[in-house]
Recover the amino acids of this structure.
């Protein structure tokens, strides 16, 4: 039930292809995806040809495309694994980007209706966020609800929403230790809410099901935090947690909002938490340093664009986190490199735009 | 359900505080859930009126004469002709936990049609930790079927004690007067199956209709202010208590949860009457909110009373120029703490008041 008018030409759906055969994924999403343009980025580590069914408007980007933009010499920005989708963010020129992992399908809501995750993300992004005061009835702009008694009137127009974080039914986005400890646990609780995550509150953003306003926060979606043994299961990565917190700090600073909640997607079973646990502990340990860093991160008054903010954050990462682990040095470099790439690619796109 | 331990009743550790000026008929519907508990009825308005309590409840009842008798001159801090008087009940209680509910709130049904035991959910909320330092996207991680998500630091997974559980309402939503006037027919029909911790540093509008708290942890902060008769403002009692409580919880490392349980709110108050009561508050809150957002309590304030007394000082210093009401309010806040400490001396057996009525 969209309250907003979605202009199809304002949206790109970016899919990072970690599997070659996208047929069933695309068929499951056809009703939702088919009106939009898709950017499909093939994980450069994935050898072979993608299988994509007909009836969609899409562009595919492969290793060679990535190299021609970024250069084939080693760059600190690495677009492999789940991070391949960031290349799609880079080359898009639409206002809104929706990104869903290729092992997720549409979920059903509590009434048994199929959820249009794209429409919900766009609604979240196009309606104001309210980060400065918590509304106990959650998103006041949803139909059938409003601001409650005691909510200051001066804060009721809200601010622009930069990021929309969706959720997952079935396989929730737990880390490997949690899922290994509770192997049968599945998320079956449909929480019918969208809410703005308050200013200065940090959260772990899951890249499995997100939407964002590329014009507002695109440069802040940094593919920077690569674990040494990063793998092809979400349990073996934390790249999205990093970029999500960059976006949150930057939104808090620039006065934009971040929403969390609906829409849900259905996440299929994949991988083995115990195997991942044996392989990868690093991400879990590093969070102990990462989270306090972002919680205390303050940007200067002079940082007025997302690009400025990323550069400042990169410097802070270098200064405060680099001594702790080499992954942070790589992250800092990647953030700086990303902003450079962003500026080059977007100016190229606007020069060539008709 | 295997592995799920039942929620403790806490029947000897929890008081239910109910302010009323009309009658207590609503208790009949709550009987299955409330009967094990001791009730503290605070009778507002005309003390010569007799409020009938349904048979079978164990209760104590206080009217204005009792409040004046027990508190003497300090009774001036307790509002008259406003449900804010309920905080007198918090003060005279000797229990660890308080649940307060309005007399126009009934048992709601969950989406499966089952009656919601609001008190049981509040107890679950209060007995499990809160997580104010990092937002969990799957909401309360201690609920059955939920957990902390990927990226949530393990060092923050113990949480902090929960001081307050703020419940919600189906049917008549808790809107202010202007919103009620614009949307007289809007009803809250959306059941949001979540409990969540309000992050540290974030303020919220606390509604006193369906509220539970740990009296030992935060009781003295739950002063509902000067409202009603002789006061320039009404319908900001719970708001005021909520802002003070949140700031103090943030300072002391305690958590506040909001969400489930729902109750069914049956009565829409008159929006024109409400507008007159709230009118000043609508303007004043534009100053009050920045005040609370900027409040900083010194680290020497380690008890709730110390925090609250310090807050009263800052209210007097910073809000007095908004309206002389705030000077009165700051003084009343100090009186409240003095009265609280008199009635609840630490280390001694609590003084017994004589309004207890057995079953």
């Amino acid at each position: 039930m969209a309250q907003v008018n979605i202009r199809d030409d304002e949206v790109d759906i970016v899919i990072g292809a970690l599997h070659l055969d996208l047929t069933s994924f695309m068929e499951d999403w056809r009703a939702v995806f088919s009106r939009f343009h898709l950017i499909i980025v093939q994980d450069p580590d994935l050898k072979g040809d993608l299988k994509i069914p007909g009836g969609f408007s899409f562009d595919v980007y492969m290793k060679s495309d990535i190299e021609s933009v970024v250069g084939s010499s080693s760059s600190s920005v690495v677009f492999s694994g789940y991070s391949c989708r960031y290349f799609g963010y880079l080359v898009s020129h639409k206002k809104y980007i929706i990104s869903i992992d290729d092992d997720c399908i549409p979920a059903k809501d509590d009434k048994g209706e199929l959820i249009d995750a794209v429409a919900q993300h766009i609604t979240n992004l196009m309606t104001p966020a309210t980060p400065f005061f918590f509304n106990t009835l959650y998103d006041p702009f949803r139909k059938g609800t409003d601001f409650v008694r005691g909510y200051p009137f001066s804060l009721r127009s809200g601010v622009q929403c930069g990021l929309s974080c969706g959720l997952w039914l079935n396989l929730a986005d737990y880390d490997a230790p949690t899922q290994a400890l509770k192997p049968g646990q599945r998320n079956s609780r449909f929480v019918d809410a969208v809410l703005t995550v308050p200013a200065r509150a940090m959260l772990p953003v899951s890249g499995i099901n997100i939407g964002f306003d590329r014009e507002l926060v695109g440069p802040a979606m940094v593919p920077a935090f690569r674990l040494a043994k990063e793998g092809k299961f979400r349990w073996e990565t934390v790249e999205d947690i990093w970029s999500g917190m960059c976006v949150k700090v930057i939104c808090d600073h620039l006065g934009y909002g971040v929403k969390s909640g609906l829409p849900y997607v259905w996440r299929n079973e994949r991988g083995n938490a115990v195997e991942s646990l044996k392989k990868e502990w690093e991400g879990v340990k590093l969070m102990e340093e990462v989270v306090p860093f972002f919680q205390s991160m303050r940007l200067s008054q002079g940082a007025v664009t997302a690009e400025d903010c990323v550069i400042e954050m990169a410097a802070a990462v270098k200064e405060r986190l680099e001594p702790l682990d080499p992954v942070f040095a790589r992250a800092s470099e990647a953030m700086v490199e990303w902003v450079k790439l962003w500026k080059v690619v977007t100016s190229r796109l606007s020069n060539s735009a008709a | 359900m295997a592995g799920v331990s039942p929620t403790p009743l806490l029947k000897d550790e929890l008081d239910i505080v109910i302010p009323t000026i009309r009658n207590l008929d609503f208790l009949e519907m709550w009987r299955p859930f409330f009967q094990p508990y001791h009730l503290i009825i605070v009778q507002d308005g005309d003390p010569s009126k007799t409020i009938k309590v349904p048979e079978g409840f164990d209760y104590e009842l206080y009217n204005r004469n009792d409040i004046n008798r027990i508190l003497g001159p300090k009774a001036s801090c307790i509002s008259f002709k406003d449900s804010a008087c309920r905080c007198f009940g918090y003060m005279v209680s000797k229990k660890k936990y308080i649940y307060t509910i309005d007399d126009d709130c009934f048992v709601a049904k969950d989406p499966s049609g089952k009656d919601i035991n609001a008190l049981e959910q509040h107890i679950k909320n209060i007995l499990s930790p809160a997580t104010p330092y990092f937002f969990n996207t799957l909401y309360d991680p201690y609920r059955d079927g939920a957990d902390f998500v990927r990226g949530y630091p393990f060092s923050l997974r113990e949480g902090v004690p929960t001081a307050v559980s703020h419940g919600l309402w189906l049917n008549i939503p808790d809107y202010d007067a202007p919103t009620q006037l614009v949307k007289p027919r809007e009803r809250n029909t959306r059941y949001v199956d979540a409990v969540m911790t309000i992050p540290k540093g974030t303020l919220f509008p606390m509604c006193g209709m369906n509220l539970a708290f740990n009296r030992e942890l935060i009781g003295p902060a739950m002063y509902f202010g000067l409202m009603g008769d002789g006061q320039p403002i009404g319908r900001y009692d719970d708001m005021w208590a909520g802002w003070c409580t949140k700031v103090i919880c943030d300072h002391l490392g305690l958590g506040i949860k909001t969400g489930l349980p729902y109750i069914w709110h049956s009565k829409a108050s008159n929006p024109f009457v409400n507008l007159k009561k709230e009118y000043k508050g609508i303007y004043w809150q534009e100053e009050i909110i920045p005040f609370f957002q900027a409040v900083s309590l010194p680290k020497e304030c380690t008890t709730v009373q110390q925090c609250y007394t310090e807050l009263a000082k800052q209210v007097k210093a910073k809000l007095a120029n908004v309206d002389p009401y705030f000077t009165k309010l700051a003084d009343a806040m100090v009186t409240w703490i003095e009265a609280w400490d008199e009635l609840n001396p630490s280390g001694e057996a609590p003084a017994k008041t004589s309004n207890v009525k057995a079953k």
Notes: Chain B touches chain A through 58 residues (CB under 8 Å). Chain B has a mean pLDDT of 94. Strands of chain B lie at 14-20, 38-43, 58-62, 97-101, 105-106, 162-171, 195-197, 210-214, 255-265, 356-357.
